[in-house]
Design goal:
By secondary structure, the chain is α+β, with helices and mostly antiparallel strands. It has one domain: 2-Layer Sandwich (Alpha-Beta Plaits). Helix content is 24%, strand content 37%. It has a five-stranded mixed β-sheet. β2 and β3 form a beta hairpin. α1 packs antiparallel against α2. The longest helix has 12 residues. The chain is elongated. GO terms for molecular function: acylphosphatase activity. It is an enzyme of class 3 (hydrolase). This is Acylphosphatase. It holds the Pfam family Acylphosphatase. Its EC number is 3.6.1.7.
């Protein structure tokens, strides 16, 4: 009997200077490196929102990455909450 690996799904809202600093593209690159599925998008309030899904250790790693972001980002805080959904790739939503 084969068991499907457990996946964790979280929703993140990243606050700070996170738009205009390649946060979304950098997060997509990091997600692909970690084998994470989901999406990322800018919100009108200046935050970045993402839904990430994958193996628990990989999800933990991308949450850790989101707390610092790419080089020019200045992350103030990250809201993290459980989410639901099924994803088969990681994409930037516009």
């Amino acid at each position: 009997m084969t068991t499907t690996p457990r996946k964790e799904t979280l929703r993140l809202v990243v606050h700070g200077r996170v738009q205009g600093v390649f946060f979304r593209d950098s997060m997509r690159h990091e997600a692909q490196r970690l084998g994470i599925d989901g999406w990322v998008r800018n919100r009108s309030d200046g935050t970045v929102e993402a839904e990430v899904q994958g193996a628990p250790a990989a999800v933990e790693a991308i949450v850790h990455w989101a707390h610092r972001g790419p080089e020019h980002a200045r992350v103030e805080r990250v809201e993290v909450e459980p989410s639901e959904g099924t994803h088969s790739s990681f994409e930037i939503l516009y």
